[in-house]
Amino acid sequence: MTSSPADLIITGCTVLTHDDHDRIGFEEDAAIVVRGGVVESVTSAAAAADLAAAERIDARGQVAMPGLINCHTHAPMVALRGVAEDLPTEEWFNDVVWPMESNLTARDVELGARLACAEMIRGGVTCFADHYFSMDEVAAAVTECGIRAHLGEAYFSSQGAQGREKSLEFALRHRGGTGGRITTALAPHAPYTVDDADLAATAELAREHGLPVHIHASENREQTDISLARHGVTPIQVLERAGLFDADVLIAHGTGIIDRDLPVLERAAGEVAVATAPRGYLKFAWPTTTPVRALREIGIPVGLATDGAASNNSLDVWESMALTALIQKSTTGDPRWLTSRQALHHATLQSARAVGLGETIGSIAPGRRADIVLVDLTGPHTQPVHDLAATLVHSARSSDVRTTIVDGHVLMRDRELLTIDLPSAVRELGERTPALLDRSHGRRIQDYQT
Ligand SMILES: [Zn+2]
Q1: Ligand 1 center from residue 391 Cα (angstroms)
Q2: Where are the domains of the chain?
Q3: Distance from residue 10's CA to the centre of ligand 1 (Å)
Q4: Distance in angstroms (rounded) separating the CA atoms of residues 36 and 7
Q5: Spacing, Cα 405 to ligand 1 middle (Å)
Q6: How far does the centroid of ligand 1 lie from the alpha carbon of residue 216, in Å?
Q7: What's the CATH architecture for 6-66+368-417?
Q8: Are strands 24-35 and 6-18 parallel, antiparallel or unpaired?
Q9: Where's the Amidohydrolase-related domain (predicted)?
């Protein structure tokens, strides 16, 4: 160990760790030493007592865990939180969201992204995968507030080749940006809005430039049934046929993945991951959920997500973790499936793998980026603690996160946001709301066809 002071030492906490077989463990009365934005060591509190540090956090009574990762969202859509309630998917898109999104300005996106980052940092999220428009503004918000992000400029084939080219240009320009906190992807919207030729061209660009692809696919069972009726293949088979699985692909939702898709996905294991955002599936009354158990059997990581707040109403990944565990038990009829430790594995390493950062984040271990949250378990709803994994998944809430750290920098301390002026973002967004919600023009950015 070097003799110069560490940048940060977090001491006295219980640390969530992973062993060589990915199994979740907990080290009590431990300390985390951070230097240069990276975890240098996880040691005992006693061993760290005499080490010099520029900053020291006394975290007794708290659990240090890897920051949560929101593997699929549309952060700026917080501006539309609650505007399209209790509607079927088609009406949600065609009658409300896509007409309103035709009003979006870059400033709306920037303010929405700031509000979203504030919500996520407060909820213990240290990285999010975003899929939206005017992504330069999202990148600016990420740079400013210190969070980590995996960003893609979304496109439809109705934009012509320009949409795809803009997505590529964004991905190349921002790749590795903001001191490495920003990674990028190509972001075709979905197989029902991006045609086969455009998907094939996307696959070619992904190969040529070594870029991953982030796309909605098999979002629900109805999409799969319609694809089969019209084209004789499922949306997953459409992606394979386009050559997309030669690149790394992050599939949002996949609740419409059926048995015939599994061999296709298994051939792409190592390249493909799925993000599950269960609250929205319940709200849209979709009949199925992401087949997490079947995906596990073929080696496909499943990361946790919220989707946008216009459908999900929150960016609370903690809730996605608890809901994933509960819905998996319910849909498989097996209370032994998706234990709290498995849920924590999805929330940590599997989510990191889903966003292409499986070697960088998702675990508190030497050499990993210091993306850490401190969770206070002293509240009455989390005491006593008999099974720490169960306490974290089923009793704790996102509001129990006291401190959020990314790359060794404290973004929230004792629930206070240090890098975002939230009141000013909320105020200006409120002033812009009437123009954003106006649907009198009769335009929409795209049609959702069933
Ligand atoms: Zn989405």
Answers
A1: 29
A2: 6-66+368-417, 68-354
A3: 36
A4: 7
A5: 26
A6: 6
A7: Roll (2.30)
A8: antiparallel
A9: 64-410
